[in-house]
Predict the 3D structure of the following.
Amino acid sequence: MENPNSCYWSELSIEILSLLLERLSFVDFHRAKIVCPNWYICSKQTVRRRSGSPLLMLCTEDDIELFNPEEDRVYKTKRDFSGRRFLANSGNWFLILDSGSNLYIEDVFSEKKINLPPLESIKSDLFSLKRVGEKEFNEKVVGGFPEKGCSKSVEDLRGLLWVDEGKEEYSVAWFFDKGAQYISFCKNGEDYYRTIPTRIGVHYKSQGISDMVLRRDSLYVYTTRQYVRLLDLSGQEGFTEVPKRSFILPFLPASPLNWDEITYADRLKVSYNIAVTRSGEVLLVESILFKATSSEMMPRRMFHLYKTDPNPDSEDILHSENLSFEVHSLGNEALLLDSGITVPADPTLGIEPNSIYFTRHDRVRNFAKEPSCPDICVFNLATKKLTRFPILSYFKPKDALWFHPC
């Protein structure tokens, strides 16, 4: 016989639900939001301490896990992400490639999923792409050589994502890492990709890809000759090149590396990425990895940031080789280098100002035969302190992505 005082979870009162939600951890709070419509509505009305700490998506050999550095805790995901690659993210949304070489974006805290056009759905007068297997494609350049085209593997696929949840809009860009002739992109509501040539018909300074950042409708490309190419994707028909005086010269470090850093136990690698601040400033991020000494468990890593004068005078442009200068502060922002963007920082919410959240330098472009191993760390520009997380050594991730949850 049914107890007359029994109650379904979905029918709990707002008062009881609020008390429950206020006591949940950040990740469990997001999980609770999708239990039912009533819980979702209540979550919007619940006053709780919002975690500002970036989270880390851990991709191991067999599973996907979530790490919260503020709690020093790893969460098991209850979703099946087997056979999937996480290419990029924007907030809670991730750009994912499944085992059938299909692209889609998904909110990791809900059931929301948006399928993207097939990779071969390219609308271009210069390029064509044909699927020839589960993971292989044939790429042709119109009038190009060889006539039979070139083989492309999804193992070399790289992608970028930007999602504006408030406007319910998104932008996606992708390319094949090896021998990239173009960048493909699409926006919400489109069932095909348009292309941006990276070599054919492009000025030599703007050719190639060393790194990229997608922010709203703007695509920033750090070219192989170390110039910044800015592309506006907001138009209805293709893209527009955006000239800027600050990008006339190559974007290089302001001065040679400090001599002590160069000679310290021999540096292993120096790498460069670009990033874009909330105000739209472009930064050059220099990452220096050193060999570990006998007293160190892990190699030491150092970061430097540079930016250019947004309005250089003509004399500087004519007589300077470089317009950049080093910056030692991000203000009240922190940099998520996986996405190439800065986010608001608040130490009371778990995210320190002037911090760089790092996993790897070659997410967009990998010039080596093998991708680098993740070096998951947080670097504070003010104190020069590098923080790693011992708990993660047990998981041996093959990849990882920092993201700032909405």
Observations:
- The first strand starts at residue 55 and ends at 59.
